[in-house]
Amino acid sequence: MSNVAGLKSNTRYYVRAYATNSIGTSYGNVLVITTPTHCGTVTDYDGNVYNTVYIGRQCWFKENLRTTHYADGNVVTRANNTSTSYYTTEAHHNNPNSCWYFCNHDSTTKADRGLLYTWHAVMKGAGSSDNNPSGILGVCPYGWHVPSSSEWCELENNLNPGIDITCSNANFRGTMAKMLAKPKYWNSYTNNSFTPGYWHTDSTGFNTTDFSLIPTGYIYMSSSYDNSYYNYCGFSGYHTHYAANHSGFTTDAYFWTSSSGKSRQINYSETGIKLATGVTLTNAFSVRCIKDY
C-alpha cells in the first residue's frame, strides 16, 4: 500500500498501479478518485454543530467556535460584561484567567459570528506550541485542536504557494483574503478587487475556499486608575479600572493560534492575511479548530 500526498480537495484524480521487472512494465486498471470537500460535521459540548472544509490536507471548521465549555465539560468563564467596563488588578491584566465575550457585546451575534476568547481560555492551561500539528486540544472538541501559527502558514501557502514559507513575515501577505471571506458584513472598499470589502461593488470570486470568514472584530483592554470594586473573570478586589472595548466589528476578523502572542488578521481593505506577533494575551479573538491527523 502507498500514500499519495499533496492532493487538493474536491478534485478528480486518475490513478493506476504498475509493476516493472526485467521483462517490462505492466499497468493496472485506471481508478477515478474525487477527493472530499469536507470531513463531516462536528458537535461541541454545548451541542453546537459546525460545518467543515478541506483546504489542502487540512480540515478546518468553516465557522467560528462558539462553545462555552471545554470538551471535558468544564466551563469557560464568561466575562462579566453586563456593561463594557470591568475591574481587575494589573497582575490579572498581564496573566488573565480564561474568559469569553460576545462579539460587539451583543448576544445575538453568537450564532453567526461565534464567540471571542482570551488566549488563556483558548489554551486551557497548555503551553505555547508552534508545531504542525500543534497538539493542543484547548477549547476545541475532541479529535480537533487549536491550530498553531505554522498550521495557519500551511493554509496560506496552500492558497498562495511560496508566499511565506518560513512563516516569518509579520505583515499582511498574499492575495488570499477574498478567497477565504464571505461577501457579508464587511465595510465597503472599492479600490482593490482582492479585498473583502470589495463585495459591495462585485461579489464574484469570493469564498472560493468555502472557509467563510466574516468580520467579528476583537476585544481589547484599556485601563485607568479607579479605586472601585471589581469582579472580572473570577477575580475581585480594589485597584485599576479596565474597560473591555470592542473594535473592528465590520472591518476585521482576528484568530488566535496556539503559538503565544501570534494571531491572524483579515481586514476589509487588505488583500492578504496578517501574521501578527507580540499580541496582548488579554485580547479576545475568534477561534477556528483544525482536525487531528
Instruction: Give the overall pLDDT as a whole number.
Output: 87
Q: How many strand segments? A: 20
Helix proportion: under 10%
How far do the termini sit from each other?
19 Å
Described by strand count, sense and barrel closure, the largest sheet is: 4 strands, antiparallel
Radius of gyration: 21 Å
Q: How many helix segments? A: 5
String of helices and strands: EEEEEEEEEHEHEHEHEHEEEEEEE
Strand composition percent: 25-35%
Low-confidence stretches: 82-95, 227-232, 234-240
Helix and strand composition category: mainly beta
Strand order of the largest sheet: 13-18-17-16
Molecular structure report:
- The chain is mainly beta.
- The protein has one domain.
- The protein has five helices and 20 strands.
- It has helices at 90-94, 110-113, 119-123, 149-159, 177-180, and strands spanning 12-15, 18-20, 25-27, 31-34, 42-43, 49-50, 52-55, 58-61, 85-88, 100-102, 115-118, 144-145, 172-173, 218-232, 235-247, 252-256, 263-267, 273-276, 284-285, 290-291.
- The strands form eight sheets. The protein has a four-stranded antiparallel sheet with strand order 13-18-17-16, covered by helices on one side.
- Strand 5 and strand 6 (49-50) form a beta hairpin.
- The protein is globular.
- It starts with 11 loop residues before the first strand and ends with a strand.
- The model is unreliable at 82-95, 227-232 and 234-240 (pLDDT under 50).
